[in-house]
Every structure is written in structure tokens, then in C-alpha cells.
DNA sequence: TATAGTAGTATACAAAAGGTTAGTACTAAC
DNA sequence: GTTAGTACTAACCTTTTGTATACTACTATA
């Protein structure tokens, strides 16, 4: 019967790939926890391209001051950037990426490349 | 003055990397729109590892029925998977990834690898 | 007949994420 | 002195995301 067959297949699948699956799911989970959400990667990209100051980043990615403030704190806490205060006058604050943030290179590349191709696909489908 | 210097630097930065930055930001934006959020990539991973049925996916990734239902519809609409109904008895529904979903390979690999390393880093820092 | 499993939907509600507006405190330019 | 810019914070509100519970309808098992 169909159900019996499915049952056996289910056991086989479990034996073969359950660990691989759980490992990948855990990896994705951890990644999304650290760099998920609407803003984190965008902020990191802006910083990588040389924008270092609050209002500069805000205008570049179109985020509200509130969210930028929150996200910058989180990113600093997680070791992706450092906050540098240059006592003025005028007082200037610069946000700079740490070396650890370089480990994100592959992720950023993969995601933005895929995003560009996906946009192209959508555009083709519409026309 | 500091401000004058910053002003000039700002212009230079704008000329050098503004386009690169905007292109990357747009790519990330499109990617996050299609596969962002807490569940999409996890569902795709589960499907890749051979889990194809509703309750199976639900248990594997720990999502509520409501959210799974919503996300599966979105993923089908965006061409990542197909819904196959096998008229029973018993009626069985299978969700299967399309070829297009294979384009996500690089993204999935980069993200889960980074996530694993990040977890390791956090673990080391704590001990 | 009762229990459990399949694949969901409906409803209500809570929590998280994000936006808007206003305001602080300071400096610089007109 | 007025306007504008820097770097934020606080209060309030809306939207999105998510959970929990109950329910449908059908099949299989004990």
C-alpha cells in the first residue's frame, strides 16, 4: 500500500539525512539570529563601501534613526563593528567594521548575486 | 577644518563607490524580499533533505501549521516549489522543490557554513 | 467506538519589528 | 538670531509575525 511504502521511505530518509538536515538548519538558525532582519546586512554593506557616520548610513540605506541606533548597538555587541568617538569640536562619531565582519564576505556575495539574478528573472517573466 | 575635510572626502567616496554600494544594497533587498524571514530558507532546507509532507516539515523545523501554510503558498507562488496532490485514499500532499530552487545552493551553503563558524566563535568566547 | 494520523483552516491573541513625531544638546554658517 | 547639520533618545502607534486552540473531514488501527 501507499502508506506502508511511505512509512518505509520515511525511515530510510531519516537514517540518511536527518543529521545533515539538522546541522544545516542549526547553521541557518544561528546565521539568521546574528545577521537576519531587514537592516543588519544593509548596514554592513554601507560600512564596507566607506560610509561611516550615523546620518550618512541613515540616508544611504533609508532606515529610521531609531532602528539604526538599535541595530548599530546590536552589531557592536556582536563584534561586527566598533564605535569611535572623535572628541571635537565638532564631536564626530564613526562606525567601523572589525576584522571579524570580513568573515561575512561569502554570505554578502552569495546573497547579493542571487538577488540580482532573481530580480532579472522576475523582470523577464513580467515581459 | 575637519568639516571641510569630511565634506571633500564625502564627495570622493560618493564618486568612487556609490554605484557599487547601491547595486549591492539592491541585490540584498531583492534577496531578502524573496527568501528573507524566519522560515523560508528552513523550509527549503527541509525539502532538500527529502522531507516532502506538511506534518513532516512542520515537525522538522518546528513551525506552526498556520505559518507553514502561509509560507508554502508564498514559496509556490515564487516558483521555488510545486504542490502535488496524490488522490488517495489516503489523500497525500507532497511539496517538491523546483529546479529554480537549485539556484539557492550558494546562498544556503554560505549562510549555514557561516552560521556554524559563528556558533563556534560564540562558544569559544564564552569559555 | 475511541484514538491517532493526514492536511490543513479559522479565530483570537501576544509579541516583535518598524515607523513617525518630537525633542535634546551642541556647532556652523548666513 | 535663524536655519541647518550632527548624533542621537523617548513616546506612541501600526504592521507583521507568530503562537495556541479549536475545528473539519477523511482513513487506519486497537
The H-and-E topology of chain A, N to C, reads as HHHHEEH
Shape of chain A: globular
Strand order of the largest sheet of chain A: 1-2
- Give the oligomer, counting copies of the same chain as homo and different chains as hetero: homodimer
**What is the first-to-last residue Cα distance of chain A?**
46 Å
- The tally of structural domains of chain A comes to 1
Largest sheet of chain A: 2 strands, antiparallel
Q: Write down how many β-strands of chain A occur, each being a DSSP E stretch of 2 or more residues.
A: 2
Structural class of chain A: mainly alpha
List keywords for this structure.
mainly alpha, disordered N terminus, 5 helices, 68% helix, homodimer, Arc Repressor Mutant, subunit A, 2 strands, two-stranded antiparallel sheet, 127 residues, DNA-binding
Describe the structure.
The structure is a homodimer of 127-residue chains. Chain A is mostly helical and 127 residues long. Chain A has one domain (38-126): Winged helix-like DNA-binding domain superfamily/Winged helix DNA-binding domain (Arc Repressor Mutant, subunit A), CATH 1.10.10. Chain A contains five helices and two strands. Chain A has a two-stranded antiparallel sheet with strand order 1-2. In chain A, a hairpin with a 5-residue loop joins strand 1 and strand 2. The longest helix of chain A has 34 residues, at 2-35. The first copy, chain A, is globular and about 60 Å long. Chain A binds a DNA duplex (30 and 30 nucleotides) through helix 4.
